[in-house]
Amino acid sequence: MIEITADFGNVLGKIKPLHGFNNAARKTDYGEVLPDFMKLSPPFIRLHDTAGAYGGSHYVDVPNIFPDFSADASDPANYDFTLTDCYLKPLCEAGINIIYRLGVTIEHEPKKYNIYAPSDPYKWADICEHIVRHYNCGWADGYFWNIKFWEIWNEPDGIDPLVEPNGPPNWIGTAKQYYELYSVTANHIKRNHPEVLVGGYSSCYILGANVDGKWTPGPYQYFSDFLQYISAPETKAPLDFFSWHGYLSRQYLQKIEIESSFVDKILAEYGFSDALRFDTEWNCCICDKDTPDYRTEYYINMRTNKGASHVAGSLYEMQRLKVDAAMFYDAQLWCEYGCLFDVPSLKPSKTYYAFRQFDEMYRLGSWCYSESRDNIYSLAAGGEYRIVGISNINETEKQVLLKLRGTDESKIRVLMLDEAHSLEPTKFSLSDGGIVITLAPYSFCSVIIE
């Protein structure tokens, strides 16, 4: 039996906004957001890969909004905001924080179109500033939505060529060209809109990088060179938040701690300790089979109790670590990673309930002490009532003894998610030491104390 203590008398802080998403779940890219998705009350939605390949040709991406780079950037007639406006309207009106990725959608195909370093970074920055102006200042028949977070490009540090045989999918240009683009754009936006927050660079793999065509695994100079560039007097630029991507494989939740600790260490070394830390893409890519078709396997697992238990455990871990906010990739129904709903039924998947549980804890407010061990992860939240979330990411059944401190145990319920249940009431027993719960392989539960 695995013993875990949760102490509601030991309040550690606030539950963080970790249940954000890339994009929103909707039947059509311009249509109504699914009501079940809105029930998750996402604190953040990041706009990247919106509406599919090439940004659906009309959404979000800079070349979609400003298709003729030779045109006058000051003329509203040269911009096409229509479908991006449609996409953003219900989200902004619901009060969701938007992270608007200024850049382009990933291109996996053998011919590349929009991922080249802009020929004129100053003009590109001017176009981006006009996009900010449209959404925050009413420019070009725009809005006053106060979109606060603006992320400059996505994954310029590339990806391992072994998994991208058609070449870099996000950035064709040198590392220094990206550093310059970031510095020019961040400074231009902040000069004109000092109230917003700018950041990047959405690192593809913070513990490795593809720099000018050479892939190097392990902590690499791309991150430190970027920070050195934007802290040098002649190229100095603001970094209100730093973003990276953390996809988790097999049962390797420790990767969250390795990456976030590395980010924190390097930011501090270059004087950026005050920058927010955002994991702007993450998911649990669980494939335990030795198969060349591993992607199909983990796309399936993302929607099952195996994926759901890992997602729940990951959320608990990010609460403990140096991650200020996180955006799961992805909420769109068409996307292989879009595992919140089953298609075409649109019924919530098992993984949906991991976010439903976390949102409930987030709304309670207070993060309290709890323990994790032996691939059993936990998170305790207190407020109007109290909850302990416990996730078993083992392939075997585990019995847990939960010891409660700092709370009245007069009324207790346990809701279970496993292969057969989706956060439904389950049996438990009381002992002198606490609450005894049996967790099936790849399952998680909510222990509710009222």
Per DSSP, the total helix count is 10
From the spread of the alpha carbons, the general shape counts as: globular
Give the percentage of residues in beta strands.
Answer: 25-35%
User: CATH homologous superfamily of the largest domain, by name?
Assistant: Glycosidases
Largest sheet: 10 strands, mixed
Name the structural class: alpha/beta
> Based on DSSP secondary structure assignment, what is the total number of beta strands?
20
Strand order of the largest sheet: 17-16-20-14-13-12-1-15-19-18
Query: What CATH architecture label of the largest domain applies?
Result: Alpha-Beta Barrel
Distance between the termini: 25 Å
- Unreliable stretches (pLDDT < 50, length at least 5) are none
Could you please say which CATH topology of the largest domain applies here?
TIM Barrel
The helix fraction, in percent, is 25-40%
- Topology order in helix (H) and strand (E) letters: EEHEHHEHEHEEEHEHEHHEHEEEEEEEEE
Number of domains: 2
What Rg is obtained from the alpha carbons, in whole angstroms?
A: 22 Å
CATH domain class name of the largest domain: Alpha Beta
Please tell me the overall pLDDT: 94
Folded structure, characterized:
The chain has 450 residues and is of the alpha/beta class. The chain has 2 domains: 16-364, Glycosidases (TIM Barrel, Alpha-Beta Barrel); 369-449, Golgi alpha-mannosidase II (Immunoglobulin-like, Sandwich). The chain has 10 helices and 20 strands. It has helices spanning 35-38, 62-65, 82-93, 121-137, 175-192, 221-231, 254-269, 294-301, 305-320, 350-364; strands at residues 2-14, 20-22, 44-47, 97-102, 149-152, 197-203, 208-211, 214-217, 241-249, 276-285, 325-328, 366-370, 376-382, 386-392, 398-405, 412-417, 422-425, 429-431, 434-439, 443-449. A 10-stranded mixed beta sheet has the order 17-16-20-14-13-12-1-15-19-18, covered by helices on one side. Strands 2-3-4-5-6-9-10-11 form an 8-stranded parallel beta barrel, surrounded by 4 helices. A two-stranded antiparallel ribbon has the order 7-8. Helix 4 runs parallel beside helix 5 (175-192) and helix 9 packs parallel to helix 10. The protein is globular. The model has no long low-confidence stretch (mean pLDDT 94).
